[in-house]
Amino acid sequence: MKQLKIEEGIFIVGGPDITDGRDGCIYLINLGELILVDTGAGWSVDKIINNIKGLALDCKNLTRILLTHCHIDHIGGAPEIKRRFGSKIYIHKLDAPPLENGDPVLTAANWYQTSFPPTPADVKFNLPEEILAIDEQKIVCLHTPGHTPGSICIYLDKSGKRILFGQDLHGPILPEFGSNLDDWDRSTQKLLDLDADILCEGHFGIYKTKKEVRNYILSCRRQYGVE
Description:
Layout: E1 5-7, E2 10-14, E3 26-31, E4 33-37, H1 45-54, E5 62-66, H2 72-75, H3 78-85, E6 88-92, H4 96-101, E7 123-125, E8 129-134, E9 137-143, E10 152-158, E11 161-166, H5 181-194, E12 198-201, E13 206-207, H6 210-223
Parallel strand pairs: 4-5, 5-6, 6-7, 11-12
Antiparallel strand pairs: 1-2, 2-3, 3-4, 8-9, 9-10, 10-11, 12-13
Helix pairs in contact: 5-6
């Protein structure tokens, strides 16, 4: 079985090499409460749950689902996980309408030749930066538009390291998704300024040194000519 542990209390529990090839990467934060960052495309819920159980964790403690943006490969499992465990769904207010309307284009469900059921969000982020406090740990949710209008990235400082969940930094930047290159430029610069030690990315896995994180973000910026 692929090594799931990234750092103490931080795991990857799904993604192209772990669950289904159509899934974006799915991360788990264990702070007593269990917090999922994204949920895959929807075909892998049982595998995700089995991976969490394999870590000797109880999915009944899966209290929150943080959706980084509204695309099917990240939101597809959210309705079923919420149904099973009562987890609350968090998303930025600008990406909430495609989720709540089941929009086939803005969720990219049509790309995957599937559909997404209209799914209400429990919490809609509204500010440039919002903090979830769990005991003494803070999880920071940053509005990082560009790939979609309501994209967010998430970070926490834990055990002396800054861990950044930066999904889909590579894009694509497409008009049909409401992408905006100027916003993306500012967002990726903001992420560079965080100087993270570890990057948990949305499709290409985990970068585990400051240099690797910085080089990856810079490579994405070069791709779109915004060095």
